[in-house]
């Protein structure tokens, strides 16, 4: 089937200001109004300040507290005295720090020990007391979630011991080992610098700590310099490394089956600290082992170089900008001229798959080559890592396919960001399909009219360089169709008029200059429809509409703005979103394996979004393929037709070459 191409240059006109007011939804009994919100959807939820300070958990501002907590503690704990169960009595003293799930203070023992060693553990002269108020979000269902994690991990290699847990004066309190300064403190007190050997030792021991934590089924979820502490100064443990603050720890495997947790993405959920979080955490993906290692990589580079490339962003969309910068920063650029093992570690961890078991031993071996063969001469105790180091013997550093004796694997995040055509093909019975691309405004109507005369309706529309692309076919099931080319994104009044005539939006596209093409049809199964235009991808709104029985049925972008159309009675039983700053190949394959198929696509110059749905009625042939090309995929489309694969949707925007 021949390709059709529009010719001529698009007229550049200054569009009038867009209409104001709400975007509307239509239903047979009347109109439902959906308020149009043009603000930024906050991607920095639960985030930290750019100074790397701990993140505040959403809703945790009720944790009695913040900086006034010590006064409230003294008020509710009998003049600052704390006793949990049969523990010694402790006097509340200076604050050690705060996290998103509570604050930690020094507790000085004022009573004589009742049992055990007089100067260690719970009987030590000083202990750490961690307070969390009963009204905090983490205590909605009783004792803090962190307690459950410590029940499993307390005393694990690199995790401080918890000696007593209980409730007093409206607070949940843990009595823990007293530790020394954090790596942030050490770096900050050493003129914002740290030796290569020290950072390499931190890498070795931190990997060992994470390996043993992961072996227990947990990922930490907030790896950063502030959460790594040394042991108490001038003690045998002064050179040991500990990982604290388990409030964001989650399980990466099911305790009953031992299987990896299922993949998911919730772009409205962020857990961690913005500066050190993995890109997957920024994008709201289910936490797994690779995320801890990616955060560790950023921690090591920060300690080594004193700064990360994404520091300095501010404002509501800081999380968006930081994640974008992380994904655009190559390992070479991130690590600079530092020792190669740091770059090799970054390259390895950012390309781990969602459910892949990291090779901890070989990661340790990378840094073991920097610090030398004698563990006793190292600035940090690495005894916990020696077993893993032994597994690779004298072998040093390079994680290449040749040394691993493994088949080369597909890299998850390597490649250059690019703008490309993203096309989706579905298995269909033989049918007539036609495409047009590089269509100027004045050629749009003639192409549509000719297609209608031939029994074809538009199934997909997109834009590239302010020119249009149309997909028309005979398999839509539509009975009539209207369209509007508008300088608005979107023209609300026209859409409402068509809703009154029982037409529903079935496809739409926007151009970089802000204009749009909206296709509305009869013969759809839809019973009600709503749309939203937003300056950022409006996942919160989508999630709200899902709960009301709507599903996404069309997507479009104009410049950096998004338009999302959602309909009731769309023929789906479930729906998910894949949102990325590069092409989300791994997420798509995870969703395909779970029975989802791509049903809508759109992209800006920064992000790509794919909607994947489970159809109420499964097609006989569920085959679906995607293709990314720099030029419009005309020849590829013809090759797909020969295999009875037909274009389902197409867009132009963010991808990876």
From TrEMBL:
<dbReference type="GO" id="GO:0004674">
    <property type="term" value="F:protein serine/threonine kinase activity"/>
</dbReference>
<dbReference type="InterPro" id="IPR008271">
    <property type="entry name" value="Ser/Thr_kinase_AS"/>
</dbReference>
<feature type="compositionally biased region" description="Basic residues">
    <location>
        <begin position="1"/>
        <end position="12"/>
    </location>
</feature>
<dbReference type="InterPro" id="IPR050235">
    <property type="entry name" value="CK1_Ser-Thr_kinase"/>
</dbReference>
<dbReference type="InterPro" id="IPR011009">
    <property type="entry name" value="Kinase-like_dom_sf"/>
</dbReference>
<feature type="compositionally biased region" description="Basic and acidic residues">
    <location>
        <begin position="26"/>
        <end position="48"/>
    </location>
</feature>
<dbReference type="Pfam" id="PF24289">
    <property type="entry name" value="DUF7477"/>
</dbReference>
<dbReference type="GO" id="GO:0005524">
    <property type="term" value="F:ATP binding"/>
</dbReference>
<feature type="region of interest" description="Disordered">
    <location>
        <begin position="1"/>
        <end position="61"/>
    </location>
</feature>
<dbReference type="InterPro" id="IPR055900">
    <property type="entry name" value="DUF7477"/>
</dbReference>
<comment type="similarity">
    <text>Belongs to the protein kinase superfamily. CK1 Ser/Thr protein kinase family. Casein kinase I subfamily.</text>
</comment>
<protein>
    <recommendedName>
        <fullName>non-specific serine/threonine protein kinase</fullName>
        <ecNumber>2.7.11.1</ecNumber>
    </recommendedName>
</protein>
<dbReference type="Pfam" id="PF00069">
    <property type="entry name" value="Pkinase"/>
</dbReference>
<dbReference type="InterPro" id="IPR000719">
    <property type="entry name" value="Prot_kinase_dom"/>
</dbReference>
<feature type="domain" description="Protein kinase">
    <location>
        <begin position="90"/>
        <end position="371"/>
    </location>
</feature>
